[in-house]
Amino acid sequence: MKKIKGIRKRWMVNSISVVLFIVLLAVTAFSAAMGSYYYTTMSNALRSKAEGAIYSFRAYQAESTYYQYARSVVSDAAGEQLEVEFIDSRGQIRFSSSDLTAFRSPGTPDIAEALSQGRTKVWTGSDPSTGEHVMAASSPLIINGRVAGAMRYVTSLRSVDRQIILIVGIALGIGLAILGMVYFSNLYFVRSIVDPVAGITDTAKRIAAGSYGIQIEKKFDDEIGDLTDALNDMSLKIKQSEKLKNEFISSVSHELRTPLTAINGWAETIMNGEVRDAEDVRKGMGIIVSEARRLTNMVEELLEFSRIQDGRFTLSIEPMDIKAELEDAVYTYREFFRREGIELNHFDCEEEFPPLSGDPERMRQVFCNLLDNAAKHGGSGKRIDTAIQGDGDQVVITIRDYGPGIPEEELPHVKYKFYKGSSKARGSGIGLAVCDEIISRHNGTLEIGNAEGGGCIVTLRLPLGGITVR
Hints:
Helix content is about 55%, strand content about 15%. The chain contains nine helices and twelve strands. The protein has a five-stranded antiparallel sheet, sandwiched between helices. A five-stranded mixed sheet has the order 7-9-10-12-11.
C-alpha cells in the first residue's frame, strides 16, 4: 500500500502545484492590472485638473493678479475631496483649500520637477506630514518665460487602496475556490484509479499465494477495466493450468506405474521359473516388450514436451525421404499390431517425391505416435490404414482407424496439451501436442477429424520443394 499512497501523493502534489502556480500567476496579473488601471485613471484625472487650472491663468500675467486669481481658484475648491494648493516659486504652499498646509514646503518630487523643469509631474507616495498614502499632480505656472509657481492637486488613495485590496481578495477567493474544486476533483479521480489498482494488487498477491481462479469485479470500462479483464483471464488460465498440471502428474504417474508393474511382474514371474510353458513365456515376453515400447514412447513424449516448453526444441535438418520414413514406421508397428489382432495396411503411390529438408528422426516419432494413438483409441475396429500421395505442391499422409471416432465437441481440443477428453485409453495427453509442434516446425499442418463410414482420420500436409524450418 505504500506505493499506492505514493502514487496518490505524487499525483496530488504535481497536479495541485501546477494549478496553484497558475492561479497565483493569474491573481497576481489581475491584481496588478486592476491597480494599474485605478492609479492610471486617477493620475490622468489629476494631471488634467492641474493643467486645466494652469490654462485658466492665461489672462493673469502680473504677480498681483495671478496671486489673486490663485487664491480664488483655491478658495473655490474648498469642501471638495481634493486638496488644491498653489505653490510659489520657492516650493512653499501659499494658498491651500484646507488652510492647514499654508506656508509649508512639502518637498515632494512632483513640486520639485514642476518648478525646476517646467512640466507637469504626477507623484504617488506617503505625505511627508501625515504619512498618508496620496497621489499629487503639480503643473507649473509659467509667466514671461519663467516658472512663477505651480498648481498642485492632492488626493488620498485610502479608498482606492481599499478597493484594490477588496478586488485582490475576491480574486484570491475565486482562485482558492478553483484550487479547491481542482483538489477535490483530482482526489476523486485519483481515488478512482488508486482504489481499483489497490484491489488488483491485493488480488494479485492472493493469486501469488495460491488462490487461483479468484476474480475481480469490473467497475470501469477503461484501461483499469482492461487490466481487470487481463488479470481475471490470467487467474482462470493459471487455475486451468494448475488443474491440468495436477491431472497430468496424476495421469503420468498412473501411466508410468501400469507398464512398470506389468514389466516387473512378468519379469519376476519368468525369472522365478513360475512359468514353464513356452507359450506363456512368449506371451509374457510379448507383454514386457509391448509395455516397454509404450513406456519408451511416453518418456520420449515427456522429453519432447519439456524441450518445447523450455524453448530447447530444435530440428536436425537433413535431406529426408518421406516415403521411406513412413514405410519404416509402418513396418515397425505392423508386427506389434498383428499380435494385438489389428490389421495395418499401407497404400503407397506411384509418384516419387524429391528429398525434403527436415528431421527424419522426429518425423518417425510423429508417425509412430499417430500409429500408437490409432491402436489405442481405434483398435476396436481391428484395422488401421496409412496412405501417402501428392497434392499439388504438398505431400499428403493419412492415418485412419476404424474405431468409434472422436465426439464432435472434442475435436477442436484434441491437440491441446494434457487434453484427454472422454477417452478411457491410457496416455499422457501430450502426444498430439508434440506431433502438432513438430509438423508446424516443418511448415506443415496436422488435421484430425472423423472419417466417413466411422473411425478417426489424421491428415498430415508437408510442402514440397524444400522446407524452411521455423
